[in-house]
Amino acid sequence: MPIGRFQTIGEQLFGLFVIAIPIACVVRTVIFEDVFREPREWCQYKSKICDDVLRRKFFYLFTCEYCFSHYVALFFVLFTGYKLLLDDWRGYVIAFFSLVLVANFYLNLYGRLRLEIQKGRVEIKSIEKDVQMKDPDAKQPSRDAA
Question: How many structural domains are present in the chain?
Fold first, then answer.
């Protein structure tokens, strides 16, 4: 009996790791990128000033990558009809929490990768600065030449 569009356990696991990619992408874009900075700052502000606890928590959910990943995963489960392991409502629940886990794994992996790239850039600039200080007559590589 097929489960959603994915019939075998292998297809289900493949779907889990593939569907988690756009979830992580949407979460990363909304929570960290400048394109959504103003709405995010407004939600941060509202999460601090609202009198009602439920309203504060509602706005906070749009500022926390882990919390927001639940909303996005729920959307993708409903959008794709993706189920995991079971062919009833429990398959949706398992899929939902599994997608949240894998998407957050991707987000953490991406964050570490960006940190390593940034660290490498800082080290390169430091080395270039040391070389320039030791040999001030050394010609600087042109940034215009490509």
Answer: 1
